[in-house]
Write a structure and sequence with these properties.
Helix content: 40-55%
Strand content: 5-15%
Largest sheet: 7 strands, parallel
Shape: globular
Order of helices and strands: HEHHEEEHHEHHHEHEHEHHEHHEH
CATH architecture: Alpha-Beta Barrel
CATH topology: TIM Barrel
Radius of gyration: 21 Å
Length: 354
Amino acid sequence: MTDYENWRATVTLGEPAWMPYNIGLTRSSWANFGAEQEKVVLSHPETWPHYQEGQYERMLEGPWSIKEDPTRDFVDQWGCVWRTTQYGFVGTIVEHPLSSEEALRTFTPPPAETYNGGQTPADFERAAAHLARMKRDGGRPMGGLDHGYFLLRLEYLRGFENLMCDLIEPSDDFMRLYNTVHALNRAAVQHWIDAGAELISLPEDLGGQDRSLIGPTYFRRWALPCYKELHEMVHQAGGLTYFHCDGNIMDISDQILEIEPDVFNPQDRANGIDALAETFKGRMCLALDFDRQHALPFGSPQDIADLLEYEVRTLGSANGGLMVQVEIRGDVPPDNLDAVAASLERLKTFWFED
């Protein structure tokens, strides 16, 4: 199998040859650990076959992304002002442009032609050319909306307390905003379909530490219909969907099954491995987000190896349905990165073991 064929077999529960995994090395990890991290990467050519010695030094040249730079604010398409206090981390909203009732009453939305969730304008003609090259080269033709494109976008615009009040007692002005954001998202999804994306990512963060942000009743009323419509658009066009969602979402897990994403990207320990297995295993593919709060920055290499072993053997199967996503930030020691790579290289074909 090619990487893409194996990936599709994993997603569609079609007996892949190995479990896909991705270890994302962020700029902050290179900035903090540089040469030490490079030694680990060079010692794992199976995981990083294309990395060349000294490559990280070129990655660190030039300015930080404006979204990850504490020396300057980022203003998105809607006028939300984002601010971070640490290099390498996207910040939070410090100015909600529609927090007042007057602003909500008179807002003008960004143009639909370049809208992709509200952070930065998209060039869909350029995206179409890129996706065509990916298809020719045997890659995965993937597109997607900005992180926080709907429920979070409403919070970005109104502020958390205002939004909670809006959901309880929606005004006509709020309903206009709600319908406008959803219409813009529909247009963005259609643009990705027209551009040739075979996989479309629809990422939100809907969970807190121990429950979802708005609970099952309000989720069913305000969020489920819109999410479900966008996923159905992609499926009707013959594509696949990828639904990212951080935090604990087990109280709305039945509704996530109703949305029917092809790939669901939850956090591991926030939800519980056994709970994820009971609810999702064999029903949809999980792209499991490995523990960034505890194991990666604070655990020992053995802690990491043990947790990955339990997760893969509990959630994985010869029929596919599991891939592992690991995000390495500047707080992850190189020894822990080494443990991640070694464990995933060993576990990726665990079902073939005697």
